[in-house]
Automatic annotation (TrEMBL):
This is Periplasmic heavy metal sensor. One of its GO terms (molecular function) is unfolded protein binding. The keyword Signal applies. GO terms for cellular component: outer membrane-bounded periplasmic space.
């Protein structure tokens, strides 16, 4: 039989483990760029910030409808795959084609948003953003080379 002190210790230890806070949430993205890294480090005017909010709001609203359609298609595909019996392959293929077309629409919407943002920025801002991205890419390439050095094919 387990002594009561051991049971009490186990209860306290497990209670502490449950009550311990997890990792904090990730920090918000800098500059409110909403997933557009080209905006990080770019100083925007008040007018540009207002226009940017409008662009993102429009994109968000149109994205909601696409997301709803995507979820419906995903559920229909899952139902096809989880239903006992023979799968109607032509119906499944049709759903997959619809899903692919929807993904293409989503990508086109993201590109449209990126073009609107591009057109909002000045030549100077675009140049600064490109220079920054080029530096980041060069650093990422260096990190990749350090993390994944090419292996020498020669035996030592």
């Amino acid at each position: 039989m387990i002594p009561m002190t051991m049971l009490a210790f186990g209860a306290v230890a497990s209670g502490n483990a449950i009550a311990a806070p997890g990792n904090p949430p990730p920090p918000p993205m800098c500059g409110g760029s909403h997933g557009f890294p080209m905006l990080h480090g770019v100083d925007l005017t008040a007018e540009q910030k207002t226009s940017l909010k409008k662009i993102f709001k429009e994109g968000h609203e149109s994205g909601k409808a696409l997301h709803t359609q995507e979820r419906t298609l995903h559920d229909q595909i899952a139902n096809q795959l989880m239903t006992p019996g023979k799968i109607d392959r032509s119906q499944l293929d049709s759903l997959v084609q619809q899903q692919s077309a929807l993904h293409a629409k989503e990508e086109a919407a993201r590109i449209d948003t990126a073009v609107k943002i591009h057109d909002l920025l000045t030549t100077k801002q675009l140049t600064e953003a490109k220079d920054r991205q080029d530096k980041i890419k060069a650093l990422m390439d260096q990190i990749h080379q350090i993390d994944h050095p090419e292996h020498d094919d020669q035996d030592d």
